[in-house]
Amino acid sequence: MHMADALISPTVGVAMWGATAGIASYSLKKLNIEADEKKLPLMGVLGAFVFAAQMINFAIPGTGSSGHLGGGLLLAALLGPYAAFLTLSVVLFIQALFFADGGLLAFGCNVLNLGFYTCFIAYPVYKRLIRRTNIWLASIIAAVVGLQLGAFSVVVQTLLSGKVELPFTTFTLFMQPIHLAIGIVEGIATAAIISFVMKTKPELSTTIETPINRLVGTLGLLALMIGGIFSSIASSKPDGLEWSVFHAIGTDELRATTAVHHALERLQQSLALLPDYNLKGGGTSIGWLDIGTSISGIIGTFIVAVAIMAPYIIIKKWRKEA
Amino acid sequence: MIYPPMLNIVQRRNIHPLSILIITFTYIFVVASFHSYAFIELMPLSLYPIAMIIFYRLPIRHIKHVLIASLPFATAIGVSQLLFIDEHILFFHWYIEARWLAFSTFVLKNTLAILAATVLFLTTPIEQLAGALLSLRIPRFLVIQLLLTYRYIFLFLEEAKRLRQAYMLRAPRHRAIKLSVWGSLVGHLLLRTFDRAERVYEAMTLRGFSIQRMHIKIKRWTTREMIYTYVTITLFIVYRLVVI
Questions:
Q1: Domains in chain A and their CATH numbers?
Q2: Domain range for residue B36?
């Protein structure tokens, strides 16, 4: 699932680098490594362990093929989400730089797709499930959740970049089932190691709690649902301002006349990620659901959420420092 | 996965790690910014990695290994372009099938980006790269972790190879390790990893280690190197702005 540089546009690459830097600095803060320096060599050698474990293939029963460990969920289970995210970031950086596995510009995308979903979404799922069910089921479900989100994220990042011609539906239908199978294998492999370690050294499992704010989570999901699903069935009729303009001058959009206007319009067109609430190059639809508009809705929701949260966080931090 | 040969590569020349880091990122940024049919426009950009390979006498064999390892991915995405693009495009004076141009452009882009990253890796030892990352204000903790992980990767790969070989010698007809055994096999490797981490930490403490005190050499960025860096990245950016 490692993305290469040729797949993404600089805009998407830089944006994902920014997101990765943000999550990494948050993780560093939460981890408070100065207080627990012992974790530093542990994270270092576990990062190297992931490389080594990937070399040892195991036979997948009944298929004749073999698979190997991904390592994200295992790291999260052993180190906790913050340390695991940082360890995975370093592992992915080494893979990009020294093994040409994943690009340098695409590094941010890869950390989000392989690290963020595994550590901050799949791991909390695993932690909750493990209290109610056994280690195997919990690992499989968590690994599948992490990989499905990661695979979908690859599709979205590729389409937003617009560097290759891949229809959304075909690409999604190709990526999701493959990663469902990979997720199951990853879950089994992770459970096999964890159950062995639990039997031999039970004290090694993580004790770090992942804070999940239920209210924020529920509201976030609701917002994504509205952005994703309802946006595609939203009214295609002009809004109030467009209606007024149409009746006033006979056309729904004002046209620019000066050279400056034209230059700015061209710049806006080239920079816009989601022109007219759709993906560059148009979207695909399944029945009544317009996929392009839905993705635009989801991304739009994210952007709005970030725009709203950012001043709040800055002000809070500023006050704390003052 | 490609590994060890890179350990034996002699660092031939002194190139400032910060310079090559900035140049590589700018280069990949410029390469990635070209559109899907920019095969001809991308061609002159191949001069940079070629010049670096010749000038620094970088090992072609290793570069070939890296490129071959990336081929399956490039081909898979490239072939998808052949399937999904169905139009003709004006190429100089001829109308050609756009799918082949898109395919070639993707493979070229991928190759150029990988070559640039490989040039960076082959010309810069990891310790110097760590110094460059520190001067770019990357947190000290992450840089030390990068050094630690890199230090142990090759050691662990050797250990994993030995484990696999030992299993295969005892079970010659198996193509891969049985899942029931695999868990405890890799589990043991993991337990040994934990023990090693413990020992590493004790050794580090005995030598008076602390994150803040750990010395990572940051090479001075001379005016000459600064000018070289700015001129090179300006060339890339100007080329990108001129050729649209």
A1: 5-212 (1.10.1760.20), 226-243+271-321 (no CATH)
A2: 5-124+219-242
